[in-house]
Amino acid sequence: MRTWRAPLVTALPGSGIGPRLYDTRSGRVSPVRPITPGIIRLYTCGITPYDATHMGHAMTYHAADLMHRVFLDAGWQVQAAQNITDVDDPLFERAERDQQDWRELASRQIDLFARDMQALRIIPPQTYDAVSEAMDRIIATAQDLHARGRLYCLPNDDVDGVDWYQDLGIDQAQSSVSGWSREQMLEVYAERGGDPDRPGKRDPLDPLVWKAQRPGEPAWDAGVLGTGRPGWHIECVCIAHHGLGLPFDVQAGGRDLIFPHHDLSAAHAAALGRPLAHFYAHVGMVALDGTKMSKSLGNLEFVSRLVDQGTDPAAIRLVLLAHHYRTDWEWTAAALDKATERLARYRHAAQHHARSAAVVAALRDALRDDLDTPRALRLLDAWACGGESENLGLDVPVDPDVDDVPAAVDALLGIALH
């Protein structure tokens, strides 16, 4: 799948200092250390392309982009991968509802998502695979799980075929990321795509790996597994393995993916004999009118709609930057107005006092500290008001040769001030 055009970013000299991020699995803010020195491998779970890109999506990919930029600022080479879940129930249901071909719906939404990412100046991944494009590899991975004795089948009375599930009891890795109790997992599993009440399952939490063909749905021949399509979690494992290798360094995604998606993806990888990722970084939820933005509820604010109405994408990005990536927050028109005013102040300041090595050093320090973007914006607010670094209360090591504030804002925050 073709990605969007990469933004032109003014490169800063590598700082040589890596960031600290909150790792969901350990529950601590810890230094990120590449498995392979000098190379960091980042995987971000992609969209299901039937209604993109609302602010919840934007916050997730913006946070992953900040990670990408901070890794680059450390002087590391970044290998990034992302999937597109274009074979899944929500897409087929929306296509049927709107009487569209699922491929046409997916293609249109993928194009829209790419346009939004380009507008927001998100650095694209090098590996960008749709499930439909990666099907041969996904089938091979599912067959590998079968050969390892990790799968069992259940007959389906509605179709001529069987569904295949992973037996989690063999490897006992079902909550290795979340650390949740069994009761916590069962409480939300059904509403997050699982089928805990399926008769015959060895464990209600066992994930679907291969689903027998249903009428009107696309299907692929998987040999011993029959004709059908893959379950959700095996897709990301395969695409990440192909693009980055297992284990990779950082798994990024929305907090709603911790369970079941990341837990069960990690369980698939464990059954294949290796860890999925070393570090798990999760992004908070964005609400509208007091409720988490959700495609099913329809309470969405879209990047494309705002841009089409004339909103500067940099102002949208400043709204996102005003909130720490791990917090939950609510989108409001007032926040966008404030961001638009802030952008104008920053651009004015960039024309009059663009040089300050102390401000650049402080911005780097804020981003390295678990992507503390609210602190970064407070620094820039003070800079924009006066531009005198000694008035900013900074206490960080300063490199006098790195003093271009607009270049740092571009490189670290993705905001072009010129």
Describe the structure.
- The protein has helices spanning about 55-75, 90-95, 100-120, 135-145, 180-190, 230-245, 260-270, 305-310, 315-320, 335-350, 355-370, 375-385, 405-415; strands at about 20-25, 30, 40-45, 75-85, 125-130, 150-155, 160-165, 210, 220, 225-230, 250-255, 275-285, 285-290, 290, 330.
- It is of the alpha/beta class.
- The protein folds into two domains: about 20-285, HUPs (Rossmann fold); about 330-415, Up-down Bundle (Four Helix Bundle (Hemerythrin (Met), subunit A)), CATH 1.20.120.640.
- The radius of gyration is 22 Å and the shape is globular.
- The model has no long low-confidence stretch (mean pLDDT about 95).
What's the β-strand tally?
15
* Tally of individual helices: 13
Q: What order do the SSEs take from the amino end to the carboxyl end, as H and E?
A: EEEHEHHEHEEHEEEHEHEEEHHEHHHH
Largest sheet: 5 strands, parallel
The CATH architecture of the largest domain can be given as 3-Layer(aba) Sandwich
Average pLDDT, rounded to a whole number, is 94
Low-confidence stretches: none
Task: Kindly state the percentage of residues in helix.
Answer: 25-40%
End-to-end gap: 32 Å
* Radius of gyration, CA atoms, in whole angstroms: 22 Å
- Number of structural domains: 2
Query: Remind me, CATH topology of the largest domain?
Result: Rossmann fold
CATH top level label of the largest domain:
Alpha Beta
